[in-house]
Amino acid sequence: MSCTILAIESSCDETSAAVISDGKILNNIVATQSVHEKYGGVVPELASRAHQQHLIPVVSEALSSAGVSKKDLSAVAFTRGPGLMGALLVGGSFSKAFAYALNIPLIDVNHMEAHVLAHFIEAPSPAFPFICLTVSGGHTQLVLVRSHLDMEVLGETLDDAVGEAFDKIAKILGLPYPGGPHLDRLAAKGDPGTFAFPLSDMKDLAFSFSGIKTAVLYFLRENSRKEPGFIAKNLEDICASVQHTLIKMLMKKLVKASRERGIREVAIAGGVSANSGLRRALNEAAQENNWRVYLPKLEYCTDNAAMVAMAAHYKFLEGKFCELDISPLAKMKI
Ligand code: KG4
Ligand code: ZN
């Protein structure tokens, strides 16, 4: 039986739709919300309104560019959570109405599982079991992936997500939002050994990223007081040193998880997996630890509906549908 699914992603500030047919992604349409830039962070109310505005044009484009009409669809899928409640409600309500009108099944998808399953969009895909470090603006998790739909969080951040640390530090440095990619670009031109920041060391496989943000803030205040123009003069070296520290904290726990579990199939996912320093560090660790590593294509690192479609495909194969009275969850566990 052939199966074609329309998938919707609206958990944060990207409105996205994708079509998947028999496990093959046909497209991945993403409308980025630029409205948040001037506020230096995502404004939830504005995100919901922008989703309202973009969703139907994005869906229409996804269907027409895939050459698929509504009557060809076997199911519709949406991100149930985690994410911003107002933003999730827009995608969720649309998907319910769509499923109801077309009388097709509805599939709810966990956004964090979808980030992991982005690895199945294109070959090579990791073999089970593998460990995935999922790093985004809202989460930092080490996930043991036993099968497409069987995942366990081995450790996660106790406070800020690493993407949040990138963005907040970038904001202190005066970079535009979201700051992660800007910090990455500047770091490439700096020397990571110039400044030392404290490495947090949490128990077991837990992370913490709030300390470094505060340490960088105090460090910059102190140095700017002593030397006006300190940030501008040292921007590239500061970015390189911060990025180096954040990556070191991530890699330490990833290596620990791999050793503890005896697993050498290792992947990264989520927005921060686009970071060039982290991608390099993963490749280096692969050499040292005899890992096989998997890095998503850049378009599948940050939020997108193709990954939601991939997750929906596996749920469809197992007949895992949801009822039309389902509600979104701002917090949702794997
Ligand atoms: O997965 P994602 O698109 O949204 C969430 O689910 O949160 O991740 C967004 C996060 C932001 O914090 C953004 O700054 C970060 O990913 N990010 C990066 C890079 N590209 C995106 N952080 C560091 N370096 C990058 N190249
Ligand atoms: Zn995400």
Automatic annotation (TrEMBL):
Any matching Pfam family: TsaD
The entry's keywords: Acyltransferase, Cytoplasm, Iron, Metal-binding, Transferase, tRNA processing
GO biological process, alphabetically ordered: tRNA threonylcarbamoyladenosine modification
GO cellular component: cytoplasm
Cofactor annotation comment: Binds 1 Fe(2+) ion per subunit.
Binding site for Fe cation: 111, 115, 303
InterPro entries documented for this protein: ATPase_NBD, Gcp-like_dom, KAE1/TsaD, Peptidase_M22_CS, TsaD
Residues that coordinate or bind substrate: 134-138, 167, 180, 184, 275
Sample GO molecular function, one term: iron ion binding
Enzymatic class: transferase
Cofactor(s) required for function per UniProt: Fe(2+)
Residue intervals of the Gcp-like domain: 24-309
UniProt EC number: 2.3.1.234
UniProt main location, coarse: cytoplasm
Subcellular location(s) per record: Cytoplasm
Reactions catalysed according to its record: L-threonylcarbamoyladenylate + adenosine(37) in tRNA = N(6)-L-threonylcarbamoyladenosine(37) in tRNA + AMP + H(+)
Gene3D superfamilies listed in its UniProt record: 3.30.420.40
Physiological role: Required for the formation of a threonylcarbamoyl group on adenosine at position 37 (t(6)A37) in tRNAs that read codons beginning with adenine. Is involved in the transfer of the threonylcarbamoyl moiety of threonylcarbamoyl-AMP (TC-AMP) to the N6 group of A37, together with TsaE and TsaB. TsaD likely plays a direct catalytic role in this reaction.
Annotated family: Belongs to the KAE1 / TsaD family.
Protein name: tRNA N6-adenosine threonylcarbamoyltransferase
Taxon lineage: Bacteria, Pseudomonadati, Bacteroidota, Cytophagia, Cytophagales
Gene name as annotated: tsaD
